[in-house]
Amino acid sequence: MDVPAIEVRDLHKSFGTVKALDGLDLTVRPGEVAGFLGPNGAGKSTTLRVLLGLLRADSGSARLFGGDAWREAVALHRRLAYVPGDVSLWPNLTGGEAIDLITRLRGPVDKARRAELLERFELDPTKKARTYSKGNRQKVALVAAFASDVELLLLDEPTAGLDPLMEAVFTDHVRHAKAAGRSVLLSSHILSEVEKVCDTVTIIRAGRSVESGTLDQLRHLTRSNVAAVVTGDPSVVGVLPGVHDVVTAPADGGTRVTFDVDNEHVGGVLSALGGLGVHSFTAAPPSLEELFLRHYGDELPDAGRAPSTNGAPAGVAASGERSGR
Amino acid sequence: MSAVAAATLAPSGTMPRAFGSTLTGTWRLVRFMLRRDRVRLTVWVLVVTALYASQLGEYAVLADDPNGLATRALLMRTPAMISMAGPGYGLDSYTVGAAVANELVLWIVLTLAVLSILQVVRHTRAEEESGRSELVRAGAVGRHAPSVAALITVLLANVVIAALTGAVLVSAGLPAVDSFAMTAGSGLAALVFGAAALVACQVTEHARGASGLGFAVLGAAFVLRAIGDIQEEHGSVLSWLSPIGWAQQTRSFVDLRWWPLALCVVAIVLLLLLAAFLASRRDFGSGLVATRRGRADAYAGLDGPFALAWTQQRSALLWTSLGLGVMWLATGSILSALPDMMETLRDNPIYSTVLGEGDLVRAFIGIMGLYAAFGGAGYAVAMSLRVKAEEESGLAEYLLATPVSRARWLGAYLAVAGIGTAVVTMSGVVALWVGAAGAGVTDPTFGEFVGLGAAYLPALAVLTALAVALYAWVPRATPVLWALFGYMFVVGLFGELLGLPDWARGISPFWWVPNTLVQDVEVADVVGLCAVAVVLFAVAFAGFRRRDVPTV
After folding, report:
1. How is the beta sheet containing A223-230 ordered, strand by strand?
2. Which of A122, B34, B105, B415 has a Cα-to-Cα distance from B297 of 20 to 30 A?
3. Where are the transmembrane segments (chain B) (predicted)?
4. Chain B contact set for A101 (CB, 8 A)
5. Domain spans of chain A?
């Protein structure tokens, strides 16, 4: 088997008394698109900076392509491209100049690819960087990253400033990168974004990985919120497998029922609802915050202690912690 | 809380057409700025007050010596001292008061002007550039409120300083009216520069550019006044073009007149009107000149940190060299008048006993060389600290994520800053020579001018290396470098007068540099400076290699 593109073992990093990373594990295999999911402040950016050799880990190992991220930083950087979470650019350079500078540092530039990316991302390269919005600065870094011929892309919340249209363009290019055999580490706090493109997901909380695996393995994490207005008696829904937290209330033309359902049981719910005379129906994926609340029963904490990773049964945590909201 | 806010905001809402509408919230901003700057401003006030107190102590010592003030007056007639003091009122019967007014006003105005320029830019253009004032302006705050509030805080600071230092002078037994006229005049002259900085803030988009323009105006005022006063005792027309001159022309403690201060008031009002006029003609966040479009792709050479650093620093280098160069050119052009002045002084018997037989023209040019080196020193500190700004803004992180080693990145910025420092220093002495040669001065020669500037390069390397070493190990401590710069200035110009011990003067790298026009170069000193610089550079690179980027 090939050497992993990224291999992090038991990584610790503190800033003064603040523990940013507390025993993090993370593996990205070659050609894999890995999601790196966690709430703000969980340590995602710190991990990326350690991987880039910008921060020195207190203990544990961080390796890229088998090489030490700190000691062999320069050589490793030839093989990767990075998009920072908060892109700042040199104020007196234009976007085009910044792209050229960054890509040239990594090696020869494919002009046609650059032009195509500029067009796809609808970026005007002649504007001075200081006049760019956050989204446009992000596009500059994305174009510079996708235009480089590298084996690994490190993307720190790359879609935070992009509109949905550009997000689709971005997703497209991540798929291209995967097709070209590149590895991608995509940090995000939006579950649906990770679901769209990633093969594997690592969830990080308070500096420690709490779940990791393929999307299928993590399927139990993904549940949809359903809201429907029906004419019949919705109590039959409550007894179906995989349905949680049913709430009913009278509504115009029938009864409003809201509940969560495990994605693997959506089919059963749909056929049950079908018999009740549906007036309206919405289903939405859960936010990461809800997921954390449900699984780890925490209030998006600052505490250093991470919960156990063995995963308490979902329903238990749900009934126990929901009352607080 | 919200009830209070509503109550104070209500009146402004009920008079939408009043003049006050563009000034709504001014007082609240003033309080906020004073809160932000409470430490900063306190330090400034204390430093200026201490400056007065220490100078008064010195004059008291002079006054005890029967010949003290008379010989001092003689010294004050030499061009070198005129350039560093005033127009020379009351030199015929020099008193403590006359000495304070003649010698101190220049430095007080310079200090207060720097304070005023920095404060105005800090609270207007810098806030706009960072985007913070977008938050403030989105509140119930008028368009001109931040600018007016900034000016009010500067005015308050100057009033407090004028009152305190005036009291210091009175407590030393000087006449009250003249004392407060002098301190108030110094404050007013400084405010002219604050107002000029506000105009600069409307013109440029960048805080750095705005304070640069402000300092350029201050530099021009400094040079005009010096040249004017050297040309003619009590000042020529040129002196009257400088706000510093206006403060000095009040003739405090000699024959007080108030009307020159009216020039300050008129200048302030005109500058404020100009600033308001420009401000209402530009968009928030932009300068008067719209940002032009640039290249769609980078020039072929922009492929590494050195080229990048050069791209970022070249305009600063151009404008600094040009601005200082014009100053030195003008200064050089008065050198031809020096020998005649010296001759008239030489006839005086006390003169030779005080100053010896040394070549005063060469001594004077040596001091001009020191000034030119200070231009280089300021540039060295400002530019070597650019790496810190790069790191704080996240740009260092972005670049170091590419195959660029830390040593190469730091080395590139350092090299560009170092080359720039040498260019600023050497172009200064060359401009001095061009001005002098144009006016017919043949001695000292071009080579001697170049040697005068070159002698400072090792000391400038020490300063640069210290800046980078601090940045690498203790980035938060880098403001200390500006304190060192100020200290070097004090040692360079007043070290002798203040009677500082050698070890204290030796802290200044410039103390180890001779005036090559009258002294020999000590090889040991040059080697020592170079060795210190090399060690500090090594320490800097070793430290930067091992620390976190960014350091949070």
Report:
1. A243-251, A254-262, A223-230, A278-284
2. B415
3. 44-62, 104-121, 148-174, 180-200, 212-228, 258-279, 316-338, 360-382, 410-434, 454-474, 481-503, 523-544
4. 298, 302-303, 308
5. 6-219, 223-284
